[in-house]
Amino acid sequence: MTQTTHHAPDPTARQADPFPVKGMDAVVFAVGNAKQAAHYYSTAFGMKLVAYSGPENGSRETASYVLESGSARFVLTSVIKQSTEQGSFLAEHVAAHGDGVVDLALEVPDARAAFAYAVEHGARPLAEPYELKDEHGTVVLAAIATYGRTRHTFVERTGYDGPYLPGFVAADPIVEPPAQRFFQAIDHCVGNVELGRMDEWVAFYNKVMGFTNMKEFVGDDIATEYSALMSKVVADGTLKVKFPINEPAVAKKKSQIDEYLEFYGGAGVQHIALNTNDIVRTVRAMRAAGVRFLDTPDSYYDTLGEWAGETRVPVDTLRELKILVDRDEDGYLLQIFTKPVQDRPTVFFEIIERHGSMGFGKGNFKALFEAIEREQERRGNL
Fold first, then answer.
1. Are residues 223 and 326 in the same domain?
2. Are residues 254 and 357 in the same domain?
3. Residue 148 domain-assigned (yes or no)
4. Model confidence, pTM
5. Same domain, 198 and 338
6. Which residues span the domain enclosing 154?
7. 36: which residues sit within 8 A by CB, 6+ positions away?
8. What is the CATH number of the domain that holds 295?
9. Which of 18, 200, 290, 304 is the most buried (most CB within 10 A)?
10. Burial of 159 by CB count in 10 Å (0-12 exposed, 13-18 middle, 19+ buried)?
């Protein structure tokens, strides 16, 4: 295995960064029924509805719900009535891919400069820089294409104090949000791409956004008896934005990446990892709200202490909740993965609690993928 590790970035790095990024602005989903999806993420994920755009405030074609938990922001959009190219794109996206991520939006200090740099370095432009204004100020937006039909919108919202973007109005929560958030931030967003295209997209991020390679996992790192995949991680200079990119590897049976590509209808966002400060409380609350997580066999925990060492959560609790542990030279992490959150075996979520480790759970890959294979077999897709 080849692996490189990033430690804390130099605070002067951003000034020298040709493509500075403030962080993830939003994960934007195209869904069949945004009203019901917003209810699900409010109740099951403990998120708070903060903004809305729909026919009641001038959006005749789409309805969008903006939910937040700490700095994590999801935007759920569905088409009410197709009349423009944007409406057609969203409707076709849902028809082709099911509910899925259309946009990994990035907050940047200067959207015009970000767009110019990206396009100059080979990005395919989707939206030239444009301004949206209302009584709360001005937002500058621009967009480029990435893998599949996913896009990156660059969002410059310096000085804007509205609930989300011009065109959106503040909205009351759908349900009373929990006293403590289930999660605080987006940790990383994982893309699945076709066989042989991982290096091409890694090079895209290196060149177009100046992202650097953080880690890579190849060969036996991510393999079971039946299936395998390859993964590389790119990140911005401050490590606020991390994008692992997976491709299938040739193996005896269909890998989880092959299954995703088949059911999603091409490359796209596979899962979104969410940072929590208390994974035990979060998992208990999400389970109680009906979220289903991947199972881990008891045998995983029998030898856990021998290689993972002490963690803040007792092994008995980890075993009860099926939480995974990984440790590297910088510390450890606790993680768990949901089952897909829609009928197609496509998008799912990871809950992660970090204690020093900036890794991605390499020690858990085999256990995790065997758990996914058990689900694939139940669906008849292995």
1. yes
2. yes
3. yes
4. 0.92
5. yes
6. 16-170
7. none
8. 3.10.180.10
9. 304
10. exposed
Residue 375 has pLDDT above 90, yes or no: no
Tell me the torsion sign for CA atoms 363, 364, 370, 376: negative
For residue 159, give the DSSP letter. T
Task: Report the distance separating Cα 93 and Cα 101, nearest Å.
Answer: 9
Same domain, 165 and 277: no
Tokens of 209: 């956004």
Say if 308 falls within a structural domain.
yes
- Token couple for 282: 């979060």
DSSP assignment of 300-352: HHHSHHHHH---SS-HHHHHHHT-EEEEETTEEEEEEEBPPSSSSS--EEEEE
- pLDDT tens profile 183-215: 999 999 999 999 999 999 999 999 999 999 987
Asked if residue 227 and residue 160 are part of one domain, the reply reads no
Residue 381 CB-density burial (10 A; 0-12 exposed, 13-18 middle, 19+ buried): middle
CA distances from 336 to 105, 293, 351 (A): 25, 7, 5
CA 50 to chain CA centroid, Å, is 20
Is 107 within the bounds of a domain? Answer: yes
3-state DSSP helix/strand/coil percent for the chain, to nearest 5? 30, 35, 40
Q: For residues 298 and 223, state if they share a domain.
A: yes
Indicate whether 5 belongs to any domain.
Answer: no
Domains identified in the chain, total number: 2
Q: 226-256, pLDDT tens digit by residue?
A: 556 788 999 998 999 999 999 987 776 677 8
The CA distance from 46 to 35, in Å, is: 16
Q: Do 192 and 306 share a domain, yes or no?
A: yes
Q: At a CB cut-off of 8 Å and minimum separation 6, what does 120 contact? A: none
Q: Where are the alpha helices (DSSP H) in the chain?
A: 13-16, 34-44, 85-97, 111-120, 198-208, 256-264, 279-288, 299-302, 304-308, 315-321, 365-379
The encoded tokens of residue 179 equal 């006293």
Q: List beta partners, residue 216.
A: 232
